[in-house]
Amino acid sequence: MKRIIIVAIALLGVMGLRAQPDDYPARMNRNQFLFSPIYLFDATFFVSYEHLFRNNSALRISPSITISNSDNSIFQNNFRSREGFGVDAGYKIFLYEKPHRNANLYMGPYFMYKYMKIVHMGYPDDVADIYKIWGVGIDTGVKFTMGRFVMDITIGGGVRYPLLNDDPNVPLADDILDINYKGIAPRINFCLGVTL
Predict the structure, then answer these.
(1) Handedness of CA 27, 28, 31, 33 (dihedral sign)
(2) What is the tens place of the pLDDT at every residue in 76-103?
(3) Is residue 48 part of a domain?
(4) How many helices (H) and strands (E) are present in the chain, helices listed first?
(5) pTM of the model
């Protein structure tokens, strides 16, 4: 799975190395660091690094880490603890020629992978489940840049595929919010950040 992640990030990087116009502002801050306050409600710390290219596009890499127990999550309460990490990478193509303008629309592909260990309360012993989830799809959104402050609102969706305990025969969930849901799934995010 690590090879798939590396290949996906490399492909997204190559897409960003297209020819770049000479009239693009050379002194513009093209690196941005953002975080998502929405994920904090699910005990997940989600940060994002984005590099704006001179060809009206950007490459985004977003790692995340989850650490929680059953008392500090608003989404699930039938577990003793959750620990995991994820990586989300995307390529953005901006609608307007200058991606650093005050407001700009974008669209582009994304790839995500998440590893999660969930310990369920059981008798006589607790039971641990390992989830490996990957997905691909399309993101659309709008980015606001006000000086060095950045706000990014994303709405998208794509294919989501979970694998529980490396067993493809485990029954899948019907609820689109369940971690073991397989199928087409929407996604939404809200990030705040600064230019570097």
Answers:
(1) positive
(2) 556 778 999 999 999 999 998 776 678 9
(3) yes
(4) 1, 8
(5) 0.78
